[in-house]
UniProtKB/TrEMBL annotation:
Protein's UniProt name: 4-hydroxy-tetrahydrodipicolinate reductase
Record lineage: Bacteria, Pseudomonadati, Pseudomonadota, Alphaproteobacteria, Rhodobacterales
Family matches, as PROSITE patterns: DAPB (PS01298)
Pathway where this protein functions: Amino-acid biosynthesis; L-lysine biosynthesis via DAP pathway; (S)-tetrahydrodipicolinate from L-aspartate: step 4/4
UniProt-listed NCBIfam families: dapB
Main location: cytoplasm
Domain Dihydrodipicolinate reductase N-terminal intervals: 7-128
GO cellular component, one term: cytosol
Species this chain originates from: Pararhodobacter marinus
Domain Dihydrodipicolinate reductase C-terminal: 131-267
Amino acid sequence: MTDTAGIVVNGVSGRMGRMLVQVIAASERAHLAGVLERPGHAWIGKDLGEMLGGAANGVTVSDDPATTLKGAQAVIDFTAPAASVALAPVAMQAGAAHVIGTTGMTKDDLARIADAARDGVIVRAGNMSLGVNLLVALTRQVAQALDPDYDIEVIEAHHRHKVDAPSGTALMLGQAAAEGRGVSLDEAAVRGRDGITGPRQPGTIGFSAIRGGDIIGEHDVMFAADGERIILRHVASDRSVFARGALKAALWARGKPAGEYDMAAVLGL
Ligand SMILES: NC(=O)C1=CN([C@@H]2O[C@H](COP(=O)(O)OP(=O)(O)OC[C@H]3O[C@@H](n4cnc5c(N)ncnc54)[C@H](O)[C@@H]3O)[C@@H](O)[C@H]2O)C=CC1
Ligand SMILES: O=C(O)C1=N[C@H](C(=O)O)C[C@H](O)C1
């Protein structure tokens, strides 16, 4: 146990928190060093194994990050923007890497995370899967290769519980398309259309979001021109792809210089 990396999971009762507990349990290189939930959550002070519907496992759910992170290699955090922003300096102070999968951050949230990363290692990505990070690289390459008269549209679909749009992944894909084309995403983005919108403005990058049922996460990048369309697609059929990527990031972070990294760095893409 002691020669494996101690990993703390934040937001342990959530969809990703539960998946991370399973992925860490299956890993030969990591063990669960602690679990966190938000203050006031019904699981605080309870045994994690019992809360998950099984036998007691001796891991108590805490709402005290500073204490729980002592001695841990990393904390993996798929929660909410305010929670991740608040945790970042605490993780840095504890000497733990902070792996952030949380999406829906504002520019101010991102600036605060970048600020915290001056004191330690943060790995942050809107999507931790290998497949999506490859798709990001392909999107940049295709956008660079095509003339600007190929209209770029990013279409994403997620489950009914998702609270942010466009998804973090869609924004990564849009950013890659903008970089490939040599434009600013802030200037090119068109987010959703409704009513008399007028014809499509040349050079824009459109975003559309679908929400429904239990869709785990689907992303298309469409390059549409007169006479043809190219569509790059990723479909996640199991949340373990995100959790495995996050654990890989947590292990990769060991000994890295302070700074904010993305999954392209972790995966060597
Ligand atoms: N980057 C990636 O690969 C992925 C990112 N996500 C993102 O991760 C986030 C969470 O997604 P889900 O697990 O589906 O949501 P969820 O709603 O199922 O879980 C969120 C958990 O965070 C907890 N939480 C909220 N505030 C907290 C605090 N202050 N301290 C500790 N825990 C706190 C909640 O109680 C809940 O258990 C979302 O932003 C989602 O977009 C989800 C999947 C993959
Ligand atoms: O909320 C989710 O579920 C997901 N969120 C991430 C995003 O916003 O892109 C990644 C994945 O698609 C699942």
